[in-house]
Amino acid sequence: MSGNPYGPEPGFAVPPMPQGPPPAPPDGLRAAAVAVLNLSGLGLGYALVRRWLPMAACWAATAVLLFVALPADADGVPGTALALYGVLLLLAAVHGAVVGLRTRLTGPAGAPLALLLAVLLLAVPAGGALWYQNAREEAAQQALLDRLERADHLVTAAGRHSFATARSDYRTALDVYRDLAVNHPGSRAAGRIPDRMRTYYTTVGAPYGHKDYCAAVEPLTYLRTVPRTMPERQLGSLARWPDDRLADSLYECGSAGLTDGGADWVARFGDLLTTFPRSAPAARVAPAVDAAVRKVEKDVRGDEPCAAVERLNSLDSRITDLARSAPAAADTADDLTGTAGRAGRSGSAGQYACGVDQFEDGDFDAAQKTMENYADGNKHGGNLERAKKIAIGAEVARTLPAAGKKLPTTASGGSISVTVKNDSPDDVTVLYTGPVTGSFTLKGCGGCKAYSLSSTLLNGFKPCDDSGRHYPQRTLSLPVGTTYFVHKPHGGSTATPASDTAKLRPGYIYTECAYTTRTLGSSY
């Protein structure tokens, strides 16, 4: 035998080793199994055909999705992430189908069993998606409940402050309640809104429960606006809850202000008569106002008659305003108009008592004005004549305070003759008071002139002493005692009034003379 025993025979070649197992015959069932297994998101189809790198990519994609999605919240998974993950699953399924079409499966399982397992494994992502949806919905419910709880805390905290301070917090809480009720009607939070609204109403309206009626007006008025924006089904009877309470508060607050002047009772009663004209509190307004006027009328006879008169005059105008502002309550308006008229008449009549009080207190300027006003407004008043006398006495006492020690009477006449002459070119009004009070005016003296001041200071100066001149004069009959005279310029003269105190005694005839220097002077 010849040749190399270890080499090939001449003309013989060894074929190269194959790169891998030969491709399997195409099998659609196998391709479907790999594709469906890849749809589970775990790349199990790639595991059956020994494609480890694509399988790892599937695991990585699923891990990223879980990282983004967990823990579940109300917003859920971003749409972009879901879209990308869906595209990756579809690509993995298509690619797996292509690979599995001509690649034998590893392990003992055949294509039918693998396909069945793949279908069963689809329950894993489907179940996960269902679980996640439930978790997300629960997170959404919890988020809404958290919003509800924060609004509840806001209401509770606002209840510790005045309504003016807490108004914005109440509005914020109401906005939350309204949003939950309107935009999330099926949520657990929305189901709790009716209970929360009852708490809301009682918290806002708490001043009424504390009988702080003036403080209750504003919050109760606010609560009447809530039904404009809140669904009716969430309120039920609460929609009318503030009405009776507000009517009561308006009456009680107005009544307190009418009594002590501490609140704008006209505005409170006006709102009551306008908003709730047929309510029981509205029917009590006219009697309450009438009682207040009667009380002040009694005060005219008390220690502070002037304050009572001022109050009656104020009541007259304010009750008239109230009657005009309440057209819806016609009967009440008529009653109020009658009460206002009585207050005005009582105030006018009460000026007499006020003037007497002012005179006795030594406020002669005010007493004069008050009695003059009384005389002008009460032409048929029972005290008309004495009021005129007191006005004269007050004017005299403004110049001679001693004249105000006794209140003037309506007495007249006396046994002593006093002649008053005018030695002045100006008209002069003569006022006198004492046992008898009165006034009269003397015409200016024709041809008379004002005396120089220096001449009045000379010894022997005697006005009204020209026997050839006919001085305007008037003779009075006055009682014994002290009479106070004031001579004042008549009309628009700016001369200063002159005064004289005459102590009248029996057996004498007195002369009182008025003359003009820079101011008026007198002698007797």
Describe this structure in words.
By secondary structure, the protein is of the alpha+beta class. Among the domains are: 28-121; 411-523, Immunoglobulin-like, CATH 2.60.40. It contains 22 helices and eight strands. The chain has helices at 28-38, 44-48, 52-69, 79-101, 111-121, 123-158, 163-183, 188-191, 193-204, 206-209, 213-223, 232-235, 241-260, 265-275, 280-283, 285-299, 305-324, 330-349, 351-360, 364-377, 384-399, 453-456; strands at residues 416-423, 428-433, 438-442, 473-478, 481-489, 498-504, 510-516, 520-523. It has a four-stranded mixed beta sheet, with no helix packed on it. Helix 14 packs parallel to helix 17 (305-324). The longest helix is centred in the N-terminal third of the chain and has 36 residues, at 123-158. The chain is rod-shaped. The chain starts with 27 loop residues before the first helix and ends with a strand. 36% of the residues are buried. The mean pLDDT is 83.
Quick structural overview:
The chain has about 525 residues and is an alpha+beta fold.
Terminal CA distance reads 196 Å
The pLDDT mean sits at 83
- List how many beta strands DSSP finds: 8
Unreliable stretches (pLDDT < 50, length at least 5) are: none
Main beta sheet strand tally, sense and closure: 4 strands, mixed
Helix fraction, binned, reads: 55-70%
What is the strand content? 5-15%
Name the CATH architecture of the domain at 411-523.
Answer: Sandwich
Q: Which CATH class of the domain at 411-523 is shown?
A: Mainly Beta
CATH topology of the domain at 411-523, what is it called? Immunoglobulin-like
Please tell me how large the radius of gyration is: 55 Å
